[in-house]
Amino acid sequence: MLPDIARAIQLQILDDRAAELTKGIAALPRHIAEIEKKMESHQRRLEHDRAALVANQKDRKRLEGEIQANDQKISKLKTQMMEAKNNDQYRAFQHEIDFCQQEIRRHEDRILELMGESEPLDKAVKVAEAAFAVEKKQVDEEKAKAQERTSRDRKEIETLTQDRRKILAEMDPRIASEYERIRKGRAGVAIAEAVQGRCSKCNILLRPQFLQELKRGDSVMVCESCKRMLYWNPPQSVADLASVGS
User: Fold this and answer.
1) Which positions ≥6 away from 24 have C-beta within 8 Å?
2) Do residues 146 and 184 both lie within one domain?
3) pLDDT of residue 132
4) Which residues lie across from 229 on neighbouring strands?
5) Distance between CA atoms of 222 and 191, rounded to whole angstroms?
6) In the chain, what is the straight-line distance between the N-terminal and C-terminal CA atoms, in Å?
7) In terms of Cα–Cα distance, which of 179, 203, 201, 183 is closest to 192?
8) Structural domain span for residue 20
9) What CATH number has the domain bearing residue 38?
10) Which of 41, 68, 119, 200 has its CA 20 to 30 A from that of 51?
């Protein structure tokens, strides 16, 4: 195998890893946005439950105020009733007192209903608050991990970029330029292995003569279909390739 083909293979390994890391970095903000959106939905539900509980408490307080006002009105009416000058006035006062008492009973019944409604509301708020606190902690931890991972991945990309420059500097400029040109035009993949007589990327069957020339490994050859560089069963393992040019 030509040394520059071995270097091109090593470049492809570095580029694949850098692409994987870049994709992961790009995906993390979307992942964080999704879990934050879910958390916001739960927060809105919690705020809704809290608002319902507050409204319940306000209604009870308002009704208690109405009861107190009716009690005070009844007290005044009873005083006035004692000063009534005739039966008609007396019955009018009594009628107002009866109405106030009916209002008090009606308000008391509604307060009991609200008290019954407040118990599940209060429980729902407490459960939602506890669940939201746990979820917020998880989201904060996830965001911290994402930031840490992004920082780590960017540092690795920097290292890969430095290693890449070293390999390119050791290659024949024409082959290095060809590698870069093919990589940009073929979704980041510039070199492929010939496996069982086919290009492992486009799966085209290689011509017998072409395959024989490729096996000799004395020149840079490209797939006649996808135009990627090709190599034939390199004797080095991937671990060995990592040492090429070092």
Assistant:
1) 149, 153
2) no
3) 86
4) 191, 222
5) 8
6) 17
7) 201
8) 8-170
9) 1.10.287.1490
10) 68
Question: Distances from the Cα of 66 to the Cαs of 61, 74, 115, in angstroms?
Answer: 9, 12, 17
Residues in the chain: 246
For the residues 88-104, what does the mean pLDDT come to? 92
Query: With bands split at pLDDT 50, 70 and 90, how would you rate the model's confidence at 239?
Result: low
| pLDDT at position 236 over 80 | no
pLDDT tens column, 75-93: 999 989 888 888 998 999 8
Per-residue confidence band for 57, with pLDDT thresholds at 50, 70 and 90: very high
Q: Which of 9-13, 39-43, 62-66 is least confident? A: 39-43
φ/ψ bin of 223: left (φ > 0), alpha (ψ from -120 to 50), beta (otherwise): beta
φ and ψ of 160, to 5 deg: -60, -40
Domain termination site, one of 121, 140, 170: 170
